């Protein structure tokens, strides 16, 4: 998104999706999300984890009472200490077991909820820009990995509270010997600082170099998946892919390993400071304060526990900071990013088109690039007409189609649908009135019925609707040849799956594109490139006929390199080097004797 984008005066300022939301509110948001999904389990698991912390921390006290009882030959103290120890050990075991089970249940449930949440958010982002911008991709790739551990985070937060409670009890025990001993905690602070700092800088380095690991993953997939298999073998690129993958992986790993070593050295130094202070405190109690044997034992046990508790607390905080704070920020970023698209959508989709679609000084550069692939295009696509877009490879034809389908937002200029700015129309509503097929269609390896039916989800299972779409697309021959017709599973890797040729897939994709009954815009972006010119011509003639009959003012936009097909359109738009150079009917453009006429003649001569 660039600052040059033209906005309406009353429009909200554009969002800044590059900025990550602050950590603590993001973490709070994730807590609330967990509570919304599993309130009872969350509260119970939290309470259990806290309860389990107390008897564990009291063990040092029982030890002191036992030593004092033995030295004073006080039976009551010895019995109290022994009973206390037994109760502490049993309660610790029991509460830990219960809390582990409850936590496990909570985690399982909340994981499913969070994964579904992230998947829904990603799918609800209106444009596909986030699938192409490098910085967003890196952010999303880290979030995708983290979503599987986000459930650990709740446990980590509970445990952190448990460790803090243990720490509190232990400090109180030390203070009972001498208040000065509370200062021991201060010597643990450097370890807290290094633990909190380490994961942050490691994460920043990981994100900075995430492009290497993404490329390494891509190279691995290319070397191992079936779709690239043929070309990998014919070109013999396999060993090269393997060695490039290694290089990319090292490009990712080396800086991260260096940062890890550096931060580990600082962390070790911080622990050395605490170790020195602990030894000093034991000497102080034994020699300086003339403490009893019980006091020295309490100091030894509580001090040792203090180090373990501080270690565990900072470890958990580090984990929380490194993954949860970070993961929750990414999640909230994705939530805000997805929400920003619907926030400004306040216009309705017209029920039918009267005027049509107008492009108003439209310019576009792909996300993360500066080169305009469409530049200052102004154009009227009249309602109820068939419009063809022609031009050399890379002239921007598919880009124009993608902008009409709202896959991207224009860099500057506007698209107006019957006078309403397209960016103010809710994307899901606009897409519900959009139909068509794309050059880079997807092969849905479902049953043929469903592979076509997804073109209009509410009628996914509606066989008559699917059969109508098949007829509209002229794909009856493909379905007739499938072993079980529409019930055939597509894709040879599935049980009883049928192998389908590229051209057949293309026709099925076309049928999918014809599922909707009342589209306002039908886009056909070279969906028949794999078919011969004659078949394409016949099909398009049929589409054009039905397009002109419709009562919704539907606009049909077709992209084709075949001029025999293009000439039937009501309006032909010629793109050249990102600009629109000509626009008119076949007859107009031939009479003008410009670029269209020249290209038309070259192709006509080639066919003669
Ligand atoms: N996702 C993308 N990111 C960056 N640049 C892109 C992207 N997709 C296309 N382009 C660039 O935009 C330009 C226009 O591409 P587009 O696909 O719109 O051309 P086209 O006219 O449809 O070409 P063809 O006839 O080959 O399909 C090309 O230079 C292409 O390299």
From TrEMBL:
Q: Which Pfam families match?
A: ABC_tran (PF00005)
Asked whether the keyword Zinc is assigned, the reply is no
Q: Where is the signal peptide?
A: none
Q: Which InterPro entries match?
A: AAA+_ATPase, ABC1_TM_sf, ABC_transporter-like_ATP-bd, ABC_transporter-like_CS, P-loop_NTPase, Type_1_exporter
What SMART domains does its record include? AAA (SM00382)
**Known PROSITE patterns for this protein?**
ABC_TRANSPORTER_1, ABC_TRANSPORTER_2
Enumerate the spans annotated as ABC transporter domain.
Answer: 357-602
Region entry Disordered, spans: 1-20
Q: Name the domain of life this protein comes from.
A: Bacteria
Q: What molecular function does GO assign, one term?
A: ATP binding
Q: Where is the composition biased (Basic and acidic residues)?
A: 1-18
Any stretches that span the bilayer, and where are they? 41-63, 75-95, 171-193, 264-286, 306-324
The alphabetical list of record keywords is: ATP-binding, Membrane, Nucleotide-binding, Transmembrane, Transmembrane helix
Per UniProt, subcellular location reads as: Cell membrane
* Membrane topology value: Multi-pass membrane protein
- The name on file for this protein is ABC transporter ATP-binding protein
């Amino acid at each position: 998104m660039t600052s040059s984008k033209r906005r309406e005066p009353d429009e909200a300022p554009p969002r800044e999706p590059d900025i990550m939301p602050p950590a603590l509110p993001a973490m709070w948001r994730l807590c609330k999300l967990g509570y919304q999904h599993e309130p009872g389990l969350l509260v119970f698991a939290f309470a259990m984890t806290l309860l389990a912390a107390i008897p564990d921390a009291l063990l040092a006290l029982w030890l002191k009472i036992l030593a004092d009882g033995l030295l004073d030959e006080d039976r009551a103290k010895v019995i109290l200490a022994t009973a206390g120890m037994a109760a502490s050990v049993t309660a610790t075991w029991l509460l830990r077991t219960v809390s582990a089970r409850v936590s496990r249940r909570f985690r399982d449930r909340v994981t499913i909820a969070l994964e579904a949440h992230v998947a829904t958010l990603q799918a609800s982002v209106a444009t596909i820009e986030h699938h192409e911008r490098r910085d967003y991709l890196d952010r999303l790739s880290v979030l995708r990995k983290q979503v599987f551990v986000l459930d650990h985070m709740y446990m980590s937060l509970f445990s952190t509270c448990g460790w803090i409670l243990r720490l509190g009890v232990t400090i109180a025990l030390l203070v009972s010997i001498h208040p000065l001993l509370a200062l021991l905690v201060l010597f643990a602070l450097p370890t807290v600082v290094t633990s909190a700092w380490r994961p942050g800088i490691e994460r920043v380095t990981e994100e900075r170099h995430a492009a290497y690991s993404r490329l390494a993953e891509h190279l691995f997939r290319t070397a191992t998946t079936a779709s690239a298999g043929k070309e990998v073998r014919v070109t013999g690129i396999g060993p090269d892919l393997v060695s490039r993958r290694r290089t990319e992986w090292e490009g990712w790993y080396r800086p991260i390993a260096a940062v890890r070593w550096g931060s580990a050295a600082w962390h070790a130094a911080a622990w050395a400071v605490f170790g020195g202070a602990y030894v000093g405190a034991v000497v102080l109690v034994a020699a300086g304060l003339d403490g009893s044997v019980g006091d020295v034992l309490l100091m030894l046990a509580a001090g040792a526990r203090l180090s373990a508790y501080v270690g565990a607390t900072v470890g958990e905080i580090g984990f929380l900071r490194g993954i949860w704070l970070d993961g929750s920020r990414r999640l909230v970023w994705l939530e805000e990013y997805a929400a920003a698209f619907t926030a400004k959508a306040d216009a309705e989709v017209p029920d039918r088109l009267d005027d049509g679609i107008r492009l108003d000084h439209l310019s576009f550069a792909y996300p993360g690039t500066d080169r305009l692939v469409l530049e200052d295009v102004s154009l009227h696509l009249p309602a109820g007409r068939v419009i063809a877009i022609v031009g050399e490879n890379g002239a921007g034809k598919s880009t124009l189609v993608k902008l009409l389908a709202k896959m991207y937002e224009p860099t500057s200029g506007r698209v107006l649908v019957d006078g309403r700015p397209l960016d103010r129309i809710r994307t899901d509503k606009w897409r519900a009135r959009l139909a068509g097929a794309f050059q880079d269609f997807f092969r849905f390896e479902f049953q043929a019925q469903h592979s076509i039916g997804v073109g209009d989800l509410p009628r996914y299972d509606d066989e008559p609707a699917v059969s109508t779409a098949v007829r509209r697309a002229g794909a009856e021959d493909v379905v007739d040849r499938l072993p079980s017709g529409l019930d055939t599973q597509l894709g040879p890797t599935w049980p009883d799956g049928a192998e389908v040729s590229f051209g057949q897939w293309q026709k099925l994709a076309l049928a999918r594109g014809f599922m909707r009954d009342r589209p306002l815009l039908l886009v056909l972006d070279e969906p028949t490139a794999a078919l011969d010119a004659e078949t394409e011509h016949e099909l398009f003639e049929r589409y054009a006929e039905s397009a002109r009959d419709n009562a919704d003012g539907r606009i049909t936009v077709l992209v084709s390199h075949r001029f025999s097909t293009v000439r039937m359109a009501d309006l032909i738009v010629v793109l050249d080097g990102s600009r629109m150079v000509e626009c008119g009917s076949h007859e107009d453009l031939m009479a003008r004797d410009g670029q269209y006429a020249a290209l038309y003649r070259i192709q006509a001569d080639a066919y003669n």
